[in-house]
Amino acid sequence: MTVEISLPAYPGHVFTGKLRQLGAIGRDRNRVDPTSEGGRDSEIAMFNAEIDMDSDGRNFHPGMSAIIKIRVHSPRERLLIPRSAIVRLDDGRNAVRLVGEAEPKVVNSQYFNDLYVEIPAGLQAGDEILLSYPLPVDDDGGAVAKP
User: Fold this and answer.
1) What 8-state DSSP symbol labels residue 63?
2) Angle at 63 between CA 58 and CA 64, to 5 degrees
């Protein structure tokens, strides 16, 4: 993501950069800043971040204050399903089970996060799928574990 960086040490100048990594957990500023007084939360979250930036030939020093604006791209619509609904076929393709269908349906899937995958092709909004893939059943109705 693109970032804009303003430093009080260089008033009126905006630096540009790229966000390389953003910490997942924010902490209250007063719990991070050892000079804060009163012991109350400031209700301002601080996150660790790594940014590659163009210094325009200026010198920066540890401890300099900065205001960072992260330019987030507009969200786009996407079809997400739980990762538990995906099954890997013997030929390496990914598939899901549609409700009421005996055969698995092959889908294209992309990693989205730990809980969901994006389905760019193979399903449409409104398709009903099983959220977990059932084990095969033997002739007596008992589940058969796959080796």
Assistant:
1) T
2) 40
pLDDT number for residue 147: 45
Question: Which residue has tokens 């210094």?
Answer: 55
The residues near 63 (Cβ < 8 Å, ≥ 6 apart) are none
CA distance 79 to 108: 11
For residue range 70-110, list pLDDT tens digits in order. Answer: 887 777 788 888 988 888 888 888 888 888 888 888 998 88
CA distance 136 to 109: 23
User: What percentage of the chain has pLDDT greater than the value 70?
Assistant: 84
The pLDDT tens digits for 31-84 are 777 676 666 777 777 788 888 988 888 888 888 888 888 887 777 788 888 988
End-to-end, the C-alpha distance of the chain in Å comes to 44
CB 94, CB 106: distance < 8 Å: yes
On whether the CB atoms of residues 16 and 64 are closer than 8 A, the answer is no
Q: Which helix (H) or strand (E) holds 71?
A: strand 67-71
